[in-house]
Amino acid sequence: MNAQKPAFSALITALLLSTSAHGLSLGGGNDPDRICNVADANTAAERCKAGDLLVFQPPTFGNEQYPVLISGAFCDFSMQVVQTVGGVACVFSTARKRDWKAFGIGGN
């Protein structure tokens, strides 16, 4: 699993460089340098703020559906999304928050 970290770090760097090279902000009036690094959907729902750079790295590798669920629930699709079978990096959005409970997210 440690071999995946450098590759995923490179993807995050590419996302940051891509947004700044195009004059894009990570949005929402939030700090564009704030990285919300999480390992599960409920933590993302609790800790991340709109406009943060969401970095999702699950604790185990192999469930290819989990990164898709994370990006579908939380990513701002008007900005670049970096997704692999091992994680997701994107700009966090609450645009689909009303649908989170249906996917078992934020069960409070």
Report the uncertain regions: 14-29
Binned, the helix content reads 25-40%
Can you tell me the overall shape?
globular
Question: H/E order of the elements?
Answer: HEHEHEE
Taking Cα atoms only, what radius of gyration do you get, to the nearest Å?
A: 13 Å
Question: By helix and strand content, what is the structural category?
Answer: alpha+beta
The beta-strand count equals: 4
Q: What's the story with the biggest beta sheet? A: 4 strands, mixed
Account of the protein in words:
The protein is an alpha+beta fold and 108 residues long. The protein is built from three helices and four strands; from the N terminus they run H-E-H-E-H-E-E. The protein has helices at 4-21, 41-47, 65-74, and strands spanning 35-38, 53-56, 82-84, 87-91. Strands 1-2-4-3 form a four-stranded mixed β-sheet, with helices on both faces. The longest helix is centred in the first third of the chain and has 18 residues, at 4-21. The radius of gyration is 13 Å and the shape is globular. Residues 14-29 have low confidence and may be disordered.
Helices and strands, with pairings:
Elements: H1 4-21, E1 35-38, H2 41-47, E2 53-56, H3 65-74, E3 82-84, E4 87-91
Parallel strand pairs: 1-2
Antiparallel strand pairs: 2-4, 3-4
